[in-house]
């Protein structure tokens, strides 16, 4: 009887871990804030804009360089963020699979003991 109780407690703990991992997976998409993605490319673009102003370029050229730099920085940062989130999701999904397998094995052991 004690063995059954221990197995049931282990299964309960594993289910709690599984629930936490599922919450983390759901929260990953909400993790990247708009300001974090927007401000960094904006700062890079402003620095490039100021450097272009020092080179004696016309106003139209400076604005063009600013827009292109902002777009490129935004694209690169967004892709980098997506890649990091994807890698974290893969790790969490692998952990979830392992925990599900452990729950299955413990349930199987519980049935065999009965």
- Report on the biggest sheet: none
Distance N terminus to C terminus?
10 Å
Number of strands: 0
Mean pLDDT: 87
Identify low-pLDDT runs.
none
- The helix-and-strand class reads mainly alpha
> What pattern of helices and strands is seen along the backbone?
HHH
Shape: rod-shaped
Percentage of residues in strands: under 5%
Give a brief rundown of this model.
With 114 residues, the chain is mostly helical.
Secondary structure topology:
Blueprint (H helix, E strand, L loop, with lengths): L1 H30 L2 H21 L4 H55 L1
Structure description:
- By secondary structure, the protein is mainly α.
- The protein has three helices and no strands.
- It has helices at residues 2-31, 34-54, 59-113.
- Helix 1 packs antiparallel against helix 3 and helix 2 runs antiparallel to helix 3 (59-113).
- The mean pLDDT is 87.
């Amino acid at each position: 009887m004690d063995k059954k109780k221990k197995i049931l407690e282990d299964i309960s703990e594993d289910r709690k871990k599984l629930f936490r991992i599922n919450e983390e997976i759901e929260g990953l998409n909400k993790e990247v804030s708009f300001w974090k993605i927007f401000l960094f490319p904006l700062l890079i673009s402003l620095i490039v804009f100021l450097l272009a102003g020092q080179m004696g370029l016309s106003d139209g050229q400076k604005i063009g360089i600013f827009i292109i730099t902002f777009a490129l920085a935004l694209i690169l940062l967004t892709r980098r963020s997506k890649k990091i989130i994807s890698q974290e999701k893969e790790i969490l999904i692998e952990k979830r699979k392992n925990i599900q397998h452990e729950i299955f094995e413990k349930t199987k052991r519980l049935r065999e003991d009965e």
